[in-house]
Design goal:
Blueprint (H helix, E strand, L loop, with lengths): L2 H28 L3 H30 L5 H27 L1
Helix pairs in contact: 1-2, 1-3, 2-3
């Protein structure tokens, strides 16, 4: 397996986890009060946006050739760092 393919598989697994967390948080939003619902929706929207951005960057990486994919790696890392932060922030908000 190439380094690119291994990196892509790792990123895809992390993206799947993010989608699962979005579904988990959606269920919690449905069970919240109206005020909490509005607050939670903003965090959930941020998380969804970060997941969409990560997915787009991963697609770019997938479409890149073996010799060019490393040039895109920083953009992918930045997108996934934002996704990790959004997941953490959302999880913290749902704890309270």
């Amino acid at each position: 397996m190439s380094t690119k393919e291994a990196y892509k598989q790792k990123a895809e697994a992390e993206l799947e986890l993010a989608h699962a967390r979005v579904d988990e948080f959606k269920a919690k939003v449905k069970n919240s009060t109206a005020d909490a619902h509005i607050n939670y929706e903003k965090h959930l929207d941020d998380l969804k946006h970060a997941a969409e951005e990560s997915k787009a960057r991963l697609k770019e990486l997938s479409d890149a050739g073996e010799d060019n994919w490393e040039k895109l790696k920083d953009g992918v890392e930045n997108a996934f760092n934002s996704l990790r932060k959004a997941m953490h922030d959302t999880a913290e908000k749902f704890k309270s």
